[in-house]
Specification:
By secondary structure, this protein is mostly helical. It is 74% helix and 0% strand. The longest helix has 46 residues. It is globular and about 65 Å long.
């Protein structure tokens, strides 16, 4: 017993709490910077996909018009509800991953910049991402989706808005997007489809790359780091070909209600098939900045700043 007590007291468990406040500040700064660099593009693409599904507006026209509006009214864009939701979504996801790393390095007495891939981080980031994303999709559908009377006036609205709305991007309330002052309820099945879509994307972003990276041929990438980077960029992007139909169906169930009033193969599938390719590539253009560029900026900036702290 004496030997055991001596052994336990001779090697007490220590936590690496040195400069913990500054380290958490680095986590916030890295996540906020990565979000600021990527979220303007993501916000515009998200709106373009929703308006394509709801009103048939060309994605290119919407993207062009929104970027012009952003250049003319930067304050209006960056203070708008759509940008705030997207920024909260991705900055919150990056910050959750950073905080998990900092907490784990503290508890395990590891260097400041240590990264810990694992179940805890995956579950935490998935929970935060899905929770905010589903709410964001509900708000975006109400802001930029079809109005309650769109089934009778969609053709006229499409022709009059082919140039895509400009100032309405900065609308703060759904009523400005629904001229009749009515707001539809997002069906529960749409929430389910959005959650399934996000689960697939997150799985492709955090789990699949490390599994397939070793099998990438040397003709495409020679070093292990290059193979990892290639897998990190390509997996979430290619997975959009699988998740986009879920996204489009969820939007269509909201845009054309009641949810059970239209048949899938006769009414909804033609709309999904019409928008599939353009929306898939548009979502790829959104995912690559979010999980490729944004992820790299967040990790590299955090690593550099943690190094300056001396840990």
């Amino acid at each position: 017993m004496t030997a055991l007590s001596e052994r336990s007291t001779s090697s007490p468990r220590t936590w690496n709490t040195d400069r913990l406040g500054a380290r958490l500040g680095v986590d916030v700064a890295s996540a906020a910077t990565a979000g600021l660099l990527t979220c303007p593009v993501i916000t515009v693409i998200d709106r373009a996909i929703i308006e394509k599904a709801a009103k048939g507006l060309p994605i290119r026209n919407t993207i062009t018009s929104c970027f012009k509006s952003m250049a003319r009214h930067p304050a209006g864009f960056f203070l708008s509800t759509p940008f705030f939701l997207i920024y909260t979504l991705y900055t919150g996801t990056y910050l959750t991953a950073n905080t998990i790393d900092t907490i784990t390095s503290t508890l395990r007495n590891k260097p400041f910049s240590t990264v810990f891939p694992g179940t805890a981080k995956f579950l935490a980031t998935t929970s935060v991402n899905m929770g905010i994303c589903v709410y964001k999709d509900e708000v975006f559908a109400k802001l930029f989706g079809a109005s309650p009377s769109s089934s009778t006036s969609q053709s006229s609205s499409s022709s009059s808005s082919t140039s895509t709305p400009k100032e309405s991007f900065f609308s703060q309330s759904p009523s400005t997007c629904h001229p009749h002052g009515q707001t539809k309820t997002v069906p529960k099945i749409s929430y389910t489809l959005f959650c399934l879509r996000d689960s697939i994307t997150i799985f492709a972003s955090f789990n699949i790359p490390s599994l397939i990276a070793p099998y990438i041929p040397d003709t495409l990438a020679t070093s292990p780091s290059t193979k990892t980077a290639l897998a990190q960029f390509s997996c979430p992007a290619l997975m959009q070909f699988v998740s986009t139909p879920m996204h489009l169906l969820g939007l269509d169930l909201y845009n054309r209600q009641p949810a059970g009033g239209l048949s899938f193969w006769g009414d909804r599938w033609p709309r999904i098939r019409r928008d599939y390719l353009s929306s898939s590539f548009a979502r790829m253009g959104k995912i690559v900045p979010a999980y490729g560029v944004g992820g790299v900026v967040n990790v590299r900036m955090r690593e550099g700043l943690m190094g300056l702290l001396g840990g």
